[in-house]
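Box S2. Input/output pair 1.
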Amino acid sequence: MRAGLPSPRWLGALKREWMLYHLGDPAFRFMFDAPPEGEWVSLDCETTGLNVRTDEIVSIGAVRIVGNRIMTSERLELLVRPERGVSAESVRIHRLRERDLAQGLPIDEALKQLMRFIGSRPLVGYYLEFDLAMLNRALFPMLGQGLPQPAIEVSSLYYDYKFRQLPAYQQQANAPIDLRFATLMGDLGLPVRDAHDAVNDAVMAALAFIKLRHLQRH
């Protein structure tokens, strides 16, 4: 680091203080605490579509990871009542009908339960960027910001793992790597549950995360 430049740790602390100062609800300051060592939360959302500006969340699934264990007995499984209903196309994907969601939680209450479940743990998921975009859009009116926890993308971990296995000439040519979830799970020798169920998807992402961490260490 060049003399006179702030350290990354100092910049991180400054960002944390700025976010805490602008936090819309101080009841959720705990999300900025130091995370429990060796713990993560695997997260997935089902939505009415793929437009992060107009579509809505209809279910949230999350499981805690402690070391190499998935704490399925402590999972979070929430149905969320959308404001604009669900289309026939989205029902075909996640199999949640309007009558199934009629008794779901309002999105604000679902988000409060999710934040308490996560605490300050880093987040894990497969194509997590989309889920976080959906959650953060809904969170912004409440907090004035999105979730502050670090995010770990399973497909990126898998890409790095496969890239290291390529011969040098393929690395230099940026040979394509199949990042489809079924391919990833099959290549890692992991069981596949029914897709488009938020808890099932969160559990599968957690399995892949644990396996890829093991492969990185060995």
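Box S3. Input/output pair 2.
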Amino acid sequence: MIVQQVAASARDALLRSIREKRARIGIVGLGYVGLPLALRFTEVGFEVLGFDVDASKVEALNSGRSYIEHIASAAVAQATSKGFSATVDFSRVTSADALIICVPTPLNRFREPDLSFVIGTTDTLVPYLRTGQLVSLESTTYPGTTDEELKPRIESRGLRVGQDVFLCFSPEREDPGNIDFTTRTIPKVCGGTTAACREVGVALYGQVIDKVVPVSSTRAAEMTKLLENIHRAVNIGLVNEMKIICDRMGIDVHEVIRAAATKPFGFVPYWPGPGLGGHCIPIDPFYLTWKAREFGLHTRFIELAGEVNHAMPGWVVNKLAAALNERGRAVKGSRILVLGIAYKRDVDDMRESPSVELMELLIERGAQIAYSDPHVPVFPRMREHFFELSSVPLTPQAVASYDVVLLATNHSAFDYAMIAKHAQLIVDTRGVYLEPASHVVKA
């Protein structure tokens, strides 16, 4: 009875501080997910403390500067004026009432889940945890991660999850560059290790999100995120396969998709491209395929889509090589300009961009590579890729000087009419050029 009263007291005190906006919010990881969330909590009146291991990010934020293109520095400056601050000092975790973990979950070189960022972050937080805190994981992962990896580490400190501290999983749903949806308007799924954990998590997110969707467990919340992204990966795999079939048959797959999309029911258009990009869709399906093996299951459908999507950069390069060959040239020695190296239109996000793989494949074949991307002026240092390149200004003279213009990401800032007029050869992976032209090759 005394234990139940203590647990209820910790829960009720935390709920009151959340509802009265007295709770201090700690956001761990200040990237594409963590920073918008920090700004949103600050916007509604919470005191927010951001944690990151990158001192340059911390210095920029505390100076009121943004390092993410679609997040204005003015928004960061406004947040700092309201009390938002960032730090590399994780001992200050103790002062936070709610801790939201927003760190990467990539794949390792064997295409298996790499939880090193999640586990390393949790191990860093654990010595500073105390009674009366909420810990919420937002990083996409396989079902069971929150209860199997975070819960034992938290309880190793002697804190009881569901009584002393509260543990949730609430998957991120950020879509960088999408002006139609914001952190506030995208519904938030939340599952807790216990009912009390879920209650606290729902209360917290309900302060900043218009609609919170409770689910029965952290596993259900983890699986929800995977299903969302596997749904997209499988459908993109389907249209990428359709692209190959249509190409062989002399049919424009984009024309077919546009026509099919006129059906008012039963069809949702997905569009082919040079491969999958972003931190979620190329990666998340493999988190489930890995976990499914523990249960003796082989996720054939998911893995087949992954094979199709993974093969797209190679298919595009082969189309480019064939187009050059028809003009009496080889890839080796050709000057190739890659248009767009961000993973999707009108953002500066380079994570898992298929453009990078295209560049590497072409360099392996001996091509001379340059790129133009108004959102990425200098090629950034990435964990696995780096080129000593800067964005080439697009002028008629520059475009005409390349043997091939490879359209990889269809940014709205590109002058497509000018490019079509002056380019010797265009390889279009995005279906930008609708009308047939002798120097435009669809890939």
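Caption for Box S3: The CA atoms of residues 170 and 190 lie 4 Å apart. The mean pLDDT is 94.
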